[in-house]
Design a protein that fits this description.
Chain A: One of its GO terms (molecular function) is proton-transporting ATP synthase activity, rotational mechanism. The complex is a heterodimer of chains A (84) and B (228). Chain A is mainly alpha-helical. Chain A has helices at residues 16-22, 27-45, 54-70, 72-77. Classes of the chains: A mainly alpha (84), B mainly alpha (228).
């Protein structure tokens, strides 16, 4: 289909630049993008008849990684091998 | 997990009934990495590609101290072990329980739907029966007409009888009056005649009649003697 209508996973690497230029960066556009991402994730992993631990565990793992990234300064300062 | 936040009517043509939920979610390997990642790397690196990538990445992060090993690492390891053990041991039971709850909900909804359909079916049959009954209107009206005709007839005959009785009473009265009058006249006449006759019999005439009777009796006795 047309370039601007395709979801991110189906865009090839070479077309990434043009794809970014087509998407709208207004608040409504960003909000819509966030909502679409949420709804697609929910529809795929949470709103199923037999979902396993995968749906929530991926969210928790992402949260772990994000919090590690936010607190990296603190980690590196209080490391046992204080070399950095 | 609740299904209440699923967006409905996302397309212009909203489908009703709402399509059912998919049976299984997206495939996830080891509970953390979606299957699409493995499929993405399969053409270039085969089956072991992602695992090699994971190992290399892990060693890189550890060696470069991008991932710092401290007391929280040990805590995380213990927690992860417990979580994995719990999921492996109780996962199936919890899933069965959730499935049972879901099935009960679906069963109640289905029962309601069936009940509603049954009720409507019986209503349809009742309606058909009522329609059949309504066809018998003509018989009902005929019976009513017959009833009314009979009432009228009985009423008419009652009145006829009453009229006859009244007329007969009056005629009887007249007849009785006439007979009474005649009787009274007769009695009166007889009395009058007797009274007059008795008045007219003077004592002289009485003696003469008695003497005549005696003479007649003598004559009779003589003839009777002669006959004997």
């Amino acid at each position: 289909g047309p370039l601007s209508e395709r979801p991110l996973l189906e865009v090839r690497l070479g077309e990434l630049h043009t794809w970014i230029s087509t998407c709208s960066f207004s608040p409504q556009g960003l909000l819509g993008a966030v909502q679409r991402a949420c709804s697609s994730y929910c529809a795929k992993y949470i709103h199923v008849k037999q979902g396993g631990p995968a749906g929530i565990s991926m969210l928790l793992a992402g949260y772990c990684l994000l919090s590690y990234g936010w607190n990296y300064q603190h980690f590196s300062k209080t490391s046992y091998f204080r070399s950095s | 997990v609740l299904h209440t936040t699923r967006p409905l009517h996302t397309t212009q043509q909203s489908l009703a009934p709402v399509p059912p939920l998919p049976e299984k979610g997206g495939e996830v390997r080891h509970g953390l990495i979606p299957e699409e990642f493995f499929q993405f790397l399969y053409p270039k690196t085969g089956v072991t590609g992602p695992y090699m990538l994971g190992t290399g990445l892990l060693l890189y992060l550890l060696s470069k101290e991008i991932y710092v090993v401290n007391h929280e690492t040990a805590a995380a390891a213990c927690i992860l072990t417990v979580i994995v053990y719990a999921i492996k041991k109780f996962g199936a039971d919890v899933a069965a329980f959730a499935d049972k709850l879901n099935e009960e909900k679906v069963a109640t909804a289905l029962a309601m739907k069936n009940e509603a359909m049954q009720a409507l079916q019986t209503a349809i049959e009742e309606e058909k029966k009522e329609q059949w009954r309504a066809e018998g209107r003509s018989y009902l009206f005929d019976a009513k007409r017959n009833n009314i005709a009979m009432l009228l007839e009985t009423n008419y005959r009652e009145r006829l009888l009453m009229v006859y009785n009244e007329v007969k009473k009056r005629l009887d009265y007249q007849v009785a009056m006439q007979t009474l009058k005649r009787q009274k006249e007769q009695d009166h006449m007889i009395q009058w005649v007797e009274k007059n006759v008795i008045q007219s019999i003077t004592p002289q005439q009485q003696k003469e009649s008695i003497a005549k009777c005696i003479l007649d009796l003598k004559a009779l006795s003589k003839s009777a003697h002669a006959a004997v």
